[in-house]
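User
Here is a favour to ask of a fellow structure person. I am asking you to supply a protein in sequence and structure-token form. Please set it down just below, with no commentary around it:

Assistant
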Amino acid sequence: MNANLTSSLPEAYQEVLYWKITENKSRIIWMNILGILLFFVFGLIFSALADGLGRMPSSIGFGLGEIGMILLGIVLTLVLHELVHGMVMRTYGATPQYGVIWKQMMFYATAPGFAFPRNGYIGIALAPLVFISILVVLGMWALQGTLWVALLTICGTLNASGAVGDMWITSIVLRYPVTARIVDERDGIRVFLPKL
């Protein structure tokens, strides 16, 4: 255990789980399959919101300008997703670091060696899903009848389906009691519990 980790953990805690998404190929495959399924599910949800709340325009053209806006929207959504993780990490006193694991095309925000309370970590993991989804819905309402509603639909769908890793990690963290401390790794988590 490194010195930074021991300084942020309460005394008498021990590691009970070191889980990495990149540990075996099947996890990456399952995460991608789930992400694709969620893309369709959230695509239907955000499309329904776009039609009802955002009053999606009846015709949408796709020229170079629109394609450029979609690509820019996707990049900004990915960046905002990780920044939201980092902003919530900061509320606990952590100093986030950002990066990309190119081999798996995974973006991340992490706070090496910082042990978060279990419920706080769940908030960190799910914050981008909730926050960006709310922004998208508010944007659809504010920009009704414009092409921006279509872009927001794409960005909301991408963000929500891209949160598959966050949801998966949350499901793992929820198996542990509220006394657990979670250390975020760029490609997984470490779970610590009080020694018996």
